[in-house]
DNA sequence: CAGTATCCACCCTGATACTG
DNA sequence: CAGTATCAGGGTGGATACTG
């Protein structure tokens, strides 16, 4: 036994990637390096602005992504993964393979 | 890039371990092999019967755990992980280590 | 463009009581 | 012991309109 359930609660960091949209967002950022708000809306057409905004804010607070604002008109905002966020790639990949192994 | 976000949606199997209680339940079953309903209630004192029941049912439907009923009086029900469920150990471990690395 | 504000419906969850 | 039934509440998410 590697980890004691007493010391692995959901808030250990797992909830930072919980939810319907966070993993897809992370995957798109892994693929594209940098994306604007509207880019994410295009590839995730079913998410509402509200939810996208909320998820990006939470991911930023959890230091998984970086938000860069260019003070132009119209405004331009770019999102990209932090190193900590990029470290999730192998784990998400394992999770994905695990999911596929069982139908 | 290993996985295409187009092909890694949350319902790929990730939602089978989503939620507040499923990972802790899996971890306890990894540790103890077999547990009764009341055993799980003891180690997870904050979960209600209703939620525990619901989570166990979903985990069973997703083939992560097995439910064994002994037709005795009083009834005895045991839960244990399937092979598919046990395969999650390394992934949860990685996730946990990843979470700990960052504060 | 990149959000926020507002309103509203719904679902998830908790508490309690009940059952086989 | 191992649940289910019922009711109530609070938070979550969607739709739309608005803003800098």
TrEMBL record, chains A, B:
Keywords: DNA-binding, Transcription, Transcription regulation
Limits of the HTH hxlR-type domain: 8-103
InterPro entries associated with the record: ArsR-like_HTH, HTH_HxlR, WH-like_DNA-bd_sf, WH_DNA-bd_sf
GO molecular function: DNA binding
Pfam entry (one): HxlR
PANTHER family linked to this entry: TRANSCRIPTIONAL REGULATOR, MARR FAMILY (PTHR33204)
Name this polypeptide is given: Transcriptional regulator, MarR family
Organism field: Ligilactobacillus salivarius (strain UCC118) (Lactobacillus salivarius)
Lineage: Bacteria, Bacillati, Bacillota, Bacilli, Lactobacillales
């Amino acid at each position: 036994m590697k980890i004691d359930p007493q010391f692995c609660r959901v808030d250990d960091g797992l909830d930072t990637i919980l939810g319907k949209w966070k993993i897809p967002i992370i995957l798109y950022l892994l693929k594209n390096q940098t994306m604007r708000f509207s880019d994410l809306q295009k590839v995730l057409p079913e998410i509402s602005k509200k939810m996208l905004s909320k998820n990006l804010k939470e991911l930023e607070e959890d230091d998984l992504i970086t938000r860069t604002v260019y003070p132009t008109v119209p405004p331009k905002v770019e999102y990209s993964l932090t190193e900590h966020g990029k470290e999730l790639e192998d784990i998400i990949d394992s999770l994905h393979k695990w999911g596929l192994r069982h139908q």
